[in-house]
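Priority: medium. Attachment 1 of 2:
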């Protein structure tokens, strides 16, 4: 249903390192790279990070990205933490989320600006 998602970040290089690490584990890559914007996808830009000189505001909601399975969720989570992200509270670690469905497995992360990213397998 979504065409693309864009997030404003405070430090494009720092955030790009974080998203490079996460998306590489999910089979995605940078498909656009400019001084004030980076975009990721398989072939077309679907997830953008943009630096516009305004600070982002944590707590706006979250973006959920699909993973091919539990191992991919775990790998993306580990890469995100290594690249400067952090779990979104004690419940952020990769785990089954039966309240969302019998196959739902997800991790909840905060990017370097405190924006919430969910990595999910078995959601749909």
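Attachment 2 of 2:
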């Amino acid at each position: 249903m979504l065409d693309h998602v864009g997030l404003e970040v405070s430090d494009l290089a720092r955030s790009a390192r974080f998203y490079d690490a996460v998306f590489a584990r999910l089979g995605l890559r940078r498909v656009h790279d400019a001084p004030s914007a980076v975009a990721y996808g398989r072939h077309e830009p679907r997830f953008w990070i943009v630096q516009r000189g305004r600070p982002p505001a944590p707590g706006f909601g979250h973006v959920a990205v699909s993973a091919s399975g539990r191992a991919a969720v775990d790998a993306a989570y580990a890469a995100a933490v290594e690249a400067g992200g952090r779990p979104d509270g004690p419940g952020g670690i990769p785990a089954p989320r039966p309240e969302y469905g019998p196959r739902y497995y997800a991790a909840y992360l905060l990017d370097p600006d405190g924006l919430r990213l969910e990595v999910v397998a078995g959601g749909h």
